[in-house]
Design brief:
Helix content of chain A: 25-40%
Largest sheet of chain A: 4 strands, parallel
CATH topology of one domain in chain B: Butyryl-CoA Dehydrogenase, subunit A, domain 3
Largest interface: A-B, 15 and 18 residues
Shape of chain A: globular
Helix content of chain B: 40-55%
Strand content of chain B: 5-15%
Radius of gyration of chain A: 12 Å
Number of helices of chain B: 17
Number of strands of chain B: 14
Oligomer: heterodimer
Distance between the termini of chain A: 11 Å
Strand content of chain A: 25-35%
CATH class of one domain in chain B: Mainly Alpha
Number of strands of chain A: 6
Shape of chain B: globular
Structural class of chain B: alpha+beta
Order of helices and strands of chain A: EHEEEEEH
Distance between the termini of chain B: 63 Å
Largest sheet of chain B: 6 strands, mixed
Number of helices of chain A: 2
Amino acid sequence: MSIGVKFCGGCNPRFERGLALEDLQRDMPFLEFEHAKEGVIYDALLVIGGCTNCCASYCQYQAEKGVIRMWDKSHLDRVKSELKKISED
Amino acid sequence: MLMTGEQYIESLRKLNTRVYMFGEKIENWVDHPMIRPSINCVAVTYDLANDPQYADLMTAKSSLTGETINRFGNLHQSTDDLRKKVKMQRLCGQKTASCFQRCVGMDAFNAEFSTTYEIDKAHGTEYHKRFIEFMKMVQQGDLVVDGAMTDPKGDRGLGPSEQRDPDLFVRVVEQRPDGIVVRGAKCHQTGSINSHWHLIMPTQAMRPGDEQYAVSFACPTDADGLYMIYGRQSCDTRKMEENADIDLGNKKFGGQEALVVFDDVFIPNEYVFLNGETEFAGMLVERFAGYHRQSYGGCKTGVGDVIIGAAALAADYNGAQKASHIKDKLIEMTHLNETLYCCGIACSAEGYPTEAGNYQIDLLLANVCKQNVTRFPYEIVRLAEDIAGGLMVTMPADKDFKSEMVVGRNGETIGDVCNKYFAASPVCTTEERQRIMRFLENICLGSSAVGYRTESMHGAGSPQAQRIMIQRQGNIEAKKELAKVIAGIKK
């Protein structure tokens, strides 16, 4: 299952966004994460913001099973659960 | 096409830019130790754009071509674009702790885009069409452009046409069928040597009679007749010292200013965007200044983030991090820094579309933003110096710390003595303490203070310029009416 990843621009992130993605890749090796590209249809889109504003633009990307947004490292468990659910659907 | 930082640096080598420093021509200015840190700084704006973790801020979709471009070449299409501009600047400040120089061009692009549209509407000229073609070239080439405004101005009590020396404001000295010839100079030009092109604007509003001075144009940085004289910075020659590292404070990055001289430079018509329409010089100046006053709410906040971090580290290294007054000073620094950011974001959120379609910031809030910037960075560095202690300006040279010359009764070297007496908390090595102290010295009163302190005071206009705008935009009469209603005054 392919997951397009879009980061916010990281002007003042409250957590290490790159490490959050590494955590997901480590725990969910059965998913294919890649930086989102226009014109590619992903199963899901993961938007990783660095603060509550989560201002990353993502309307230009396509995902068949929805968009998952996170802006705090405490969201990791929820994200994993949502990704797992999508992968099982 | 997005260039990489390395490609940008290589592109500079292809230019025949004329640079003078210490009374001599600098042939290989790209690798000159006093200039290179400022080039590295601009290169960061390219590398971040190619990094997926930062691309959302660092890139945008061109309104002219639909291509992905560096945001420094963007014509803002929404208030979201304006906010992201400020966030991008904060990010670049965090990564360089310096002035990264590319904002002036971006701010000039947006001011020119909307102003040329309105000049054409009034005069039937074709400046806007020309400017669009220029912007397409800039965006497609991912070019750095110096937006140049400040003239030498000579006697401040006299207008451009009244000066004893007519060249103290950039002017047209010859009108030709195929273009114009310009003469004069622009002062304090941030990043001018590191730019591929220059975009020249008038320095102030013009009156009838000042037609030759109401001129705006673009020209390549290596145009025939154009040259630059490099501006000195405090402690700049430390960069020329052998194996300079710790004593520089910020070895990799720095800012740059120069005097840019136009010694009868020919500008083809396709790059002329204002030529005698005096009534539009003020609009161009006001719009550029507005954008640039917004910019300072981003870039200085980013540099402030690094200073706050350095002050906190200095406290840790001194073993003073638990003292309540230290914690309070760090809170105060953060409060001041985020207040700068608030105004940058606020004037962006309250932006509006111009007749040409790009977005302009809220002028009142942008001027309040810059007015804060003329003050708060000074307080932030004062607090940083307070926390760091006097060592940041009294510490021996790094060569002393590494010296093997025996000076002590028991065979101690100069290095042994320095490392013994400048050791502090066990959480750091003496070298780490040296590094953070030198960083603070550099930003508070060394070469980087040019960008963080005096540029905060005078860049994008000196404090009084903002106060004039605040007075104009402040709407005191409406406030009087509010008070009258509440107080029950009927007349």
